[in-house]
Write a structure and sequence with these properties.
alpha+beta, SH3 type barrels, four-stranded antiparallel sheet, 7 strands, about 25% helix, elongated
Length: about 200
């Protein structure tokens, strides 16, 4: 036997591959499809045609304009929470023997009419001079539609806001807001003239 002679293994593999390709092509040959066509036609005739449901009615988009008028301002502490803070401050002051020296609202002060509204719901409408000393007063419109006149040292807003200055364009306030349990801090705020 010749050592250089090797049996040709590739010939049977080529024959198998050729046979598979021929079988696949034979599947693509035209067949008699009359039975299938008859079934499709019969099904089309006997199946009732149902009309699709009409599309849902699309309502036109109506944009929502956010205004703070009459809506609670999420950044203002509610009056009931302020009252709780004030009670905690009084309790802490009593426990410390009255030695609490930080800023805090006066619990005995009678609340003014404009203190029941948040500062964001009030509008400055204008100013006028009144009295012998020609002092500047501001006109403030409340959410209930009533116009109030205020001067320095009056209070407005739910954060114990005391008026410290009135100009032709704005009312400057100093508010006292909660700063943790039993603690308070002062904060400057203002109310600008409505255009």
């Amino acid at each position: 036997m010749n050592p250089c002679f090797r049996p040709n293994v590739a010939v049977p593999a080529r024959a198998i591959l050729l046979g598979a390709v021929l079988a696949a092509l034979a599947g693509c040959a035209q067949r008699d499809m009359t039975d299938l066509q008859q079934f499709v036609e019969t099904t089309k005739r006997t199946t009732p045609m149902k009309k699709p449901d009409p599309p849902p009615e699309i309502k036109p988009y109506t944009p929502f304009a956010y205004t703070a008028q009459g809506i609670k301002d999420p950044f203002i502490v509610a009056p009931f929470a302020q009252e709780e803070e004030l009670e905690v401050t009084q309790v802490l002051a009593a426990q410390q023997g009255g030695g609490y020296t930080g800023v805090r609202p006066d619990p005995n002060r009678v609340r003014e009419e404009l203190e029941k509204y948040s500062l964001g719901s009030l509008k400055m409408m204008g100013t006028f001079r009144m009295g012998g000393n020609n002092e500047l007063w501001a006109l403030i419109l409340a959410p209930d539609g009533v116009v109030h006149r205020v001067q320095n040292n009056n209070y407005l807003g739910t954060n114990h806001g005391k008026i410290v200055d009135i100009t032709e364009q704005q009312v400057d306030l100093r508010e006292i807001v909660p700063d943790g349990p039993g603690r308070w801090q002062e904060r400057d705020a203002f109310l600008s003239l409505t255009q």
